[in-house]
Amino acid sequence: MNFTIFIIISVSIGFVIFKWNRRNNSKWVLPKESFPTDWRIILFNNVSFYNALSEDEKKKFEYKIQEFLLNCRITGIKTNIDATDKILVASSGVIPIFKFDNWKYANLYEVLIYPSTFNEEYEIEGSNRRVLGMVGNGAMEGIMILSQQALKHGFKNESDKKNTAIHEFVHLIDKTGGPIDGIPSVLMEKQYAIPWLDLINKKIDEIYEGASDINPYGGTNRAEFFSVASEYFFERPKLLERKHPDLYNLLEKVFKQDMSSRNLSKSKVTIGRNSPCPCNSGNKYKKCCGQVHFN
């Protein structure tokens, strides 16, 4: 069977099952278990956004990670995925909506992880494989596809103003309010809509004129500009505020986050055997939650 047809059939069956489950189990699933220490270590080692949070905010972030993974499947397609892949996907979804306590990705039920780039027919072999991420439509409604390589690169390289997974989740947020058009109506207060459109047009013109450090892909259309600018906002907020203060200020209002005040330079924290245990017990990791790894 053709790989693309196989994916579409599998997704269609999954979507029917998902809709049936949502109809018969209308309650959104909420976390009941404590956050796994191994997951916390993954966050410490990979997610600068998490490390820059206060202790209370970290608990909130962890809760949202659990909530996301309880309500959305992460599936590897012709690649093996592990807890790190799942935590990175969930983090990408949580970061943009972190300040929206009641947010639910009701229009997403599965994220497919492809090993690398793919084309618009969802093929991972052959020519024209330039796609790193995609929010599905039609038969792929409720699906997001991400390149595994791009997912990991987005959290490994935090100086390039790019994060493919955050980019796709911003598209999904945009889509929640109607068509993907670069106007996040579900997040943006009405009085900012016209200034936002005017600013997008201005910034896209700057991209065309070669007078911008914003990823040129943002010049494709308003929707792509919104996602590209959001990547910049969450990856290099201080630089964005310095070079594009007007853009930074509007994105701050959209996401309700003052990213430039967060100390992202804390970056990732490597948990070694003699590090303080992430469970905040006050003991060394090797004498606490890490005993299973070091004994």
TrEMBL record:
Gene3D superfamilies: Collagenase (Catalytic Domain) (3.40.390.10), Glucose-regulated metallo-peptidase M90, N-terminal domain (1.10.472.150). InterPro entries: MetalloPept_cat_dom_sf (IPR024079), MtfA_fam (IPR010384), MtfA_N (IPR042252), SEC_C_motif (IPR004027). Pfam families: Peptidase_M90 (PF06167), SEC-C (PF02810). One of its GO terms (cellular component) is cytosol. One of its GO terms (molecular function) is aminopeptidase activity. PANTHER family: MTFA PEPTIDASE (PTHR30164), PROTEIN MTFA (PTHR30164:SF2). This is Peptidase.
